[in-house]
Write a sequence for this structure.
């Protein structure tokens, strides 16, 4: 490469070999003051090739890496299983049923009048996860929540007759002692959030589609 | 890995081979004549024992993989088939199951040895850090292995552990979905856990290689914590320590065999012989015994940390528990810099020794509490205030972290050591005359 120290340090490339004298012209790329010349900011054609090749290599690595990461996300068949339809006609007032949706249990409860009143009368501001009952149900009689404790994912008790339902008449998680009320809201214990309400639509009075 | 200058071997084939690839020279240098402090006690067996357990786990694991089906519909039955129909399948599975426990026993004693005799101190910091990395990899491997039989504990263990990630705001849930490959723990989860459970032991082998390499750069620590000064302080590794390691390994293997043959399910949970059921959580979920202290730390955090007098929560109890649990292991990585006392061995540091033994008791207490249901009432302090296992876990957690963050740095500055011998040789001679041959 160039025998001139300043030219090699400035341009680092062969294109400047001819520019033996410093400060030769304002167009020259080998000035000691890089303010004017075009190539002195980024360097020579070699630098340009080096950087574009590097950038392409980075894009290439990224485009191979992403499929390898994304393959771990839910596959198309897993996503396709994401709705389920439930017939509610057999459920009496005060009864619950558990259905499977996305591999998780969904609690459907036909609430009694007292339970609805209990859920609505509470002062929302005193709750850990502030949500009024009306934000959590489409029809007050039907409470539909995902039966997975928001602490660490256990299934709370309270669906079967005879289960411990906790001091707020909702659900009780046996794993770490979280207590939920009749609206599935967290009232006590380590869980940070209310039981999640899934997306659902009533297709008719007795048929609901979850998902 | 240059083996340095060679001395020719008598055997013509070995010499031919060694000229081209000096493996024999290297083995002789690192495991034959390798100068080893002559005052090792039996605590120094556990590195070799852990190595033996790693090989045992890989061999029994590969064998099991030949009969195991990583599919939620088949997994449980394929494990039962291994137990009932595959020739000696019961033996191989019990070796593998209990092997995990005994691998952890060996490693916990190995870690305790490192703590007690200050093996993590300069110049062995990197050696120690590789050790912590091995420990982390072992935990990940053990957790994923426990999921494979697809019993109730497998399923709910996987659910609880992967839910740790949802504690992190915003990124948590996408990460969890990515890890389990769906909206709940299911077939994609089982498949990838099997792939990773097969892979990680070989990663462990790689890190063990680095661990041993680093060890052979610095040489072993020893019970006095004093570096060997001349050849009176050391012995060649073979036959002295090959023999001592073999003897210790034999004793360890006897205990291991007692478990494999006479009480193979003693360390497991009966719930895991019930097939996984996503609709029913077992009443009492606990991890395997070797995770219990960390599980207790997770559950010890029951309060949100927020801005005072507002509703704003900065760190929820859930996130706090997860951070402390990971932190309890991560803190080991910086231990060499938390304890900067120049003397290594607890033999000459009475205060350090006392606090360290208290730390061991704390870890055992955490393990005990972690295995119990949350909030078991123990006794009344006042009429309304009941002292529960959660309080025990909280006090123990505070000590766990205080030991590293407060006690060690303070002791580093103020602790006065007991008189120390000038060399290993002198320590051994003094011991022979005064402590009844108990090296």
């Amino acid at each position: 490469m160039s025998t001139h120290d300043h030219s090699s340090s400035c341009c680092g490339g062969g294109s400047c070999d001819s520019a033996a004298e410093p400060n030769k012209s304002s167009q020259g790329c080998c000035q000691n003051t890089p303010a004017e010349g075009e190539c002195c900011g980024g360097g020579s054609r070699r630098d340009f090739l080096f950087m574009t090749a590097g950038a392409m290599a980075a894009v290439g690595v990224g485009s191979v890496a992403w499929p390898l990461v994304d393959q771990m996300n839910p596959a198309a068949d897993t996503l396709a299983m994401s709705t389920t339809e439930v017939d509610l006609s057999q459920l009496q007032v005060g009864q619950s049923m558990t259905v499977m949706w996305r591999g998780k249990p969904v609690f459907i409860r036909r609430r009694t009048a007292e339970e609805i009143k209990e859920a609505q009368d509470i002062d929302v501001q005193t709750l850990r996860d502030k949500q009024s009952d009306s934000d959590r149900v489409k029809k007050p009689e039907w409470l539909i929540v995902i039966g997975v404790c928001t602490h660490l994912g256990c299934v709370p008790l309270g669906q079967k007759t005879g289960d411990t339902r906790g001091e707020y008449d909702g659900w009780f998680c046996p794993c770490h002692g979280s207590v939920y009320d009749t609206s599935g809201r967290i009232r006590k214990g380590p869980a940070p959030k209310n039981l999640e309400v899934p997306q659902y639509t009533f297709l008719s009075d007795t048929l609901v589609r979850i998902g | 890995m240059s083996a340095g200058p060679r001395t020719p071997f008598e055997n013509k084939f070995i010499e031919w081979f060694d000229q081209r690839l000096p493996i024999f020279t290297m083995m002789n240098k690192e495991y034959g004549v390798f100068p080893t402090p002559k005052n090792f006690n039996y605590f120094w067996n556990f590195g070799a024992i852990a190595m033996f357990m790693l090989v045992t786990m890989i061999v029994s694991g590969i064998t099991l993989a030949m009969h195991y089906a990583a599919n939620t519909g088949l997994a449980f039955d394929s494990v039962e088939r291994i137990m009932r129909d595959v020739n000696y399948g019961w033996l191989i599975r019990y070796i593998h199951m209990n092997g995990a426990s005994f691998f952890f026993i060996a490693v916990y004693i190995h870690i305790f040895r490192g703590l007690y005799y200050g093996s993590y101190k300069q110049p062995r910091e990197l050696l120690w850090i590789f050790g912590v990395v091995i420990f982390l990899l072992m935990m990940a491997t053990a957790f994923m292995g426990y999921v494979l039989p697809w019993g109730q504990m497998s399923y709910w263990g996987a659910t609880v552990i992967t839910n740790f990630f949802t504690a992190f705001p915003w990124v948590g849930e996408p990460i969890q979905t990515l890890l389990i490959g769906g909206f709940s723990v299911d077939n994609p989860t089982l498949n990838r856990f099997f792939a990773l459970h097969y892979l990680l032991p070989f990663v462990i082998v790689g890190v063990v290689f680095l661990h041993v390499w680093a060890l052979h750069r610095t040489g072993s620590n020893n019970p006095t914590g004093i570096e060997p000064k001349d050849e009176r302080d050391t012995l060649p590794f073979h036959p002295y320590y090959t023999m001592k390691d073999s003897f210790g390994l034999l004793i360890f293997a006897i205990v291991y065999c007692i478990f494999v043959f006479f009480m193979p399910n003693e360390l497991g949970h009966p719930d895991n012989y019930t097939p996984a059921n996503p609709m029913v959580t077992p009443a009492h979920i606990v991890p395997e015994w070797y995770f219990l202290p960390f599980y207790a730390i997770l559950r010890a955090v029951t309060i949100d940390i927020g801005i005072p007098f507002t509703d704003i929560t900065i760190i929820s109890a859930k996130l706090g528990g997860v951070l402390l649990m990971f932190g309890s292991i991560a803190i080991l990585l910086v231990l060499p810099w938390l304890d900067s006392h120049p003397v290594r061995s607890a033999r000459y540091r009475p205060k350090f020794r006392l606090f360290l033994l208290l730390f061991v008791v704390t870890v055992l207490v955490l393990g005990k509490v972690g295995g119990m249901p949350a909030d078991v009432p123990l006794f009344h302090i006042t009429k309304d205030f009941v002292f529960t296992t959660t309080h025990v876990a909280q006090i123990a957690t505070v000590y766990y972290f205080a030991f590293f963050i407060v006690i060690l740095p303070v002791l580093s500055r103020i602790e006065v050591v007991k008189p120390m011998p000038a060399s290993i040789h002198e320590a051994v001679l003094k011991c022979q005359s005064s402590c009844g041959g108990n090296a």
